[in-house]
Amino acid sequence: MTVRSKGNTSPEEVQAMHLLGSFIKYRRETLNDVGLAEHGHHSRAGFILDTTTFEDGSRAWISEKSLANIENGQNMPSLPTLYRLATALQMSPEDLFSAAAAAFILPKDKAKEEMKKYMPGSDFSAADDADDEDWD
After folding, report:
1. The dihedral of CA 95, 124, 85, 21: what is its sign?
2. Is the pLDDT of residue 106 over 70?
């Protein structure tokens, strides 16, 4: 189950969902796995198709629309979805949970600094430029 950023969601929670979504999108778009690059992982559909086999044998782990809603800050992923996203994003669940916690607990500038720790080889500045309204 996901939480929508509409309705009773506070402005701070909406901002945190946008920040987390931008982080997930940036991480997906910058994956370095050669196999994923060959199959067009930069698209959401390609990413989902190339990351659908998990330890428990499940395949249909997320829809393209759900991933888009998460990346656009419209939905907050559930814990099981965050766990599977971590696996698909080639990072530990602990790191993704820490990034999510930073988005919701820390002020925006400090949250962005914390999230940069989980972006190997990147200073996350491209995300700043690409999604300026989410980062101001």
Report:
1. positive
2. yes
